[in-house]
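#data-curation
PF: Archiving a pair of folding outputs for the training set. Convention for this channel: one message per protein, sequence first, structure tokens after, nothing in between. First:
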Amino acid sequence: MERSSDPQAGDAAADTPAAATAISAHVEEIERLRGRLRATEREHAEVQAALAELQLRLESEAPQCNQFPAGCCTVDADGHLSFVNRAAMQLLGLTSAKPGQRKFASLFGKEAQTDLADFLARVFAGEAGCSCELALAPNRRRERRVLLLLGQAGGDIRQCHLALLDISRRKRTEQREQARSKVLELLASDAALREILEAIVLGVESSDGNARASIMLLDRRGDRLFTGAAPNLPDFFCESINGMDIGIGQGCCGTAAFTGKRVVAENIALHPYWRNWSEVAERAGLAACWSQPIPGASRKILGAFAVYYPYPHQPTSDDLWSIEEAARLSSIAIERHRDAEALRASEERWKFAIDGSGDALFDWDIGSGSIFLSPRWYDMFGYPQNAFGDVLGEWRRRIHAEDIEAVMECLERCLDGNIDNYVAEYRLRCRDGNWKWTLARGLVVSRHNDGSAARMIGTQSDISERKRMEDELRELATTDVLTGLANRRRFIERISEEHARLQRDDGLKAAVLMLDLDHFKKVNDRFGHAVGDAMLVHFTGILRGQLRRFDTAGRLGGEEFAVLLPGASIAAARSFASRLRRAVESAPLGYKGQNVGMTVSIGLSSIDPGDPGSDTSLLRADAALYEAKSAGRNRVVVARNDA
């Protein structure tokens, strides 16, 4: 055979084994990829089968879940709802039990998104006992709701099961109590009327995110309404109704102020009373309104409180109670403001023409010392007419010892010309021995050439009832509504006062206790919040029975309490705490024929005058309380630096 003389043919022959090897490797790579694809397809089929099995199980268990009074739902790892029972449908405002690809987060308001994402992350991470309180997004098919979510992840961590509890009523009650306390604090501190009225409006709005409220004030003539507070209504709408006449057919507020009765317009566009304002209401996004008249103490109408909704809406009994309470608070604020205005005006007058006013009149000739008192003055304090010879001396002897210094100082400043008016509130002893609060107002109407006072005239009013109401307001502003103990703000004030007292005299002692009812949440969960509240009241009664007259007990929040023991050493405080712990343990709460056990954990600390702040001792007691809880509860632990 003849050898080829072509060199390229020789090279091709030499490359044949290498090409075969490359082709073989490529074939093997293709086979590996095919194997991996088949494995992926098998895994995908297994996942689909598992999901189908899960869906069948959920559908088979749905009738049982629908019997649960609590809402139940399932959320997958992508955040989609895969199952809801009938109760959850009602709570969430869903129309179908097959939510499909609906995102669970879409049911909640924007402000709740971060908390919801954190909650679901903790649930899918397998954290035990996950819970979260979230507000649903506003929806015309349901009232504003706040839900308590309890979560548990599934075994394969591809889904989680949630229980949904409606805590809207409790949250609304808490919000209203907070708003009411704020209003009472503003009233007790003599805040401006607009500030108080806005606080009342915002308090009503805080319990329902869809609501917008306003307060309209009746003018002095009693025939027109003007805006007193409407912080969240559009300006153009407020301008359109500002100065409106009252009368039937004058919107809800004008009609309510005229008739003295509540007026409800479930649909503004269709209501005849809104004929003149329906267009501006629509532009403002207002579709429903109800208005409550604001009555004064004499039943004279002071104005009207209104609530608006962005869609046609019928008020619930809870809505009506809320607006009635708001109208009552508004009445107190308006009347107090008008009383203050009247007082300021009367202080500026130099002549007091008060016949028939109910106030007493005095006329003092300063040079001779002669004082004329009107018959009303003697009647006010229970003395016979012209009972006093030395009127000035008898008057001074009947002023309360705690008040006389301030009264005489104010009087002297007015006589000397340093102030224009003599105005003093003080207690005067009546003939029967009781004390009556009185407001004295006087004006020097003539002076001698040297500037010394020659004559003063003035009035004296009985303000005992006003003082009683102010005391009640102060008490309400510093007292926990449920237990009657000092609230957190008042208790912190007492700690500060005691700390300052110890700094003035380092020989004194005092101690503070932090207390927490053990397993209180379980009682709430098992028996309901009504029983939880009853337990707090029951515990308060036991606590009061252990206190001395000058001790202070306060509720700091929830089931957490604190006690201030002035003059108590650590040993005495430990003895007090131990007695209280035993008393609580031996006095269970009776409920429907059964005893609900109750124990308390207590941490205590001395109050050191050298502490940098008045709350330092409270923090030490709180740390000791934490140790008591960690050590098994139902025990007393002394702070480390006091042990």
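PF: Second:
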Amino acid sequence: MADPRLLVIMGSGETAPTMAKVHRTLFDRLGPGDVKAAIIDTPYGFQENADDLSARTVRFFAESLGREVGVASYRTREVDAITTATAVSLVRGARYVMAGPGSPSYALRHWAGGPVASALSDHLETGGVLTMASAAALTLGALTIPVYEIYKVGESPSWLPGLDLLAPSTGLKAAVVPHYDNAEGGNHDTRFCYIGERRLRELERQMPDGTFVLGVDGHTAVIFDLDRRTASVAGRGGVTVRAHGQSTIFPSGSEVKIETLADVAARLASRTPVDIGWEPAPVEPGIRSAAPNARPEGGLAVSGSTLGHSREPVQLTVADQEGAVVDALAHGDRRGAVAALLDLDLALEARVRSGEDSPDLDDARSTFHALIARLGGASSSPDPDLETPMDRLVDELLSARARARQSGDWDTADLIRAALARADVEVRDEASGWRRVLPGR
């Protein structure tokens, strides 16, 4: 059976715990057993820590998903023919392909018109998962924002030609903007992938007619099923369709026909009231949110399986994840407990964003907070997976002190204890031996 054709855009957090569930779901769509997977290092190929970034990504897939991924290393188009052929072969042979952080303009410079871009395009035709996140996501559309050049260097807002993989596969003539809800600027506007409202408006004025902005929030994914012609939103945030300064937001949990996104963009561009099948929730002026409610007659085509309140009751969701947390802690699996808590947080956040408001949701939040407290209590015992270098240094010093005491070298043992005390690590000698005293105990 042929693999489904899935194009996935992640706004950020592609190797964060919050997105592990999305990756798991995507791998599951490819069936049981091993799945050949590859990451492409081009977007960050210019960085001095490129090797470390690749290693971290490989480690994320191994530790969080139990999946082995290869690195299709193509850091510049000036590499030799063997390096190019090896990278392209990995991409073409993989059923799961991902590219992520770095510089979109750098990625374009080395992908456009070359063998990697061709391999990515073919991947969308032949089947499998193509996940484009952060910088790589910016390259998907007909237009690309040169983020570094505008935000860091101060160049005037202007577009670069993108790879234009989105329109042939989905029919959407859009510029993809990840990090859409970014708030890192604090006292200055870094929304819309760091460029802010003023510069985005300037870029909108330069867009050809019929082209719109497709914004993807951080720690959020939009999954285009090219066979079923659907777009579904997963993760913490939402996906925004924006045209001529007007926006409609599809929150996490939404699933619509791909054509619906184009219809919404056209209506926004013509200032026509947008009716996507439910009443919008109140939001800031100029933005209309696609928060599910009752579907009026004549709304646009919407797949309702994941919208509205047809989901399982919140009590069942909480019970499932609470059981997973308790079971994980009982087996000493703190990572599993954290993963279950993150899954619960995502589920509750999706309900809040969809407009759900009920006492059961308040109770669910209380349970969530209690589980966090329980996890904190379990963290008083050391976990080798969570140890810091300082923890390991303290353990080595304690072992050295124990050896000194066993050999009768009391002066050395006392010197080590005094040194540890200066670092707020107290060791008490008792008749039965010694014990480490945690701060405040």
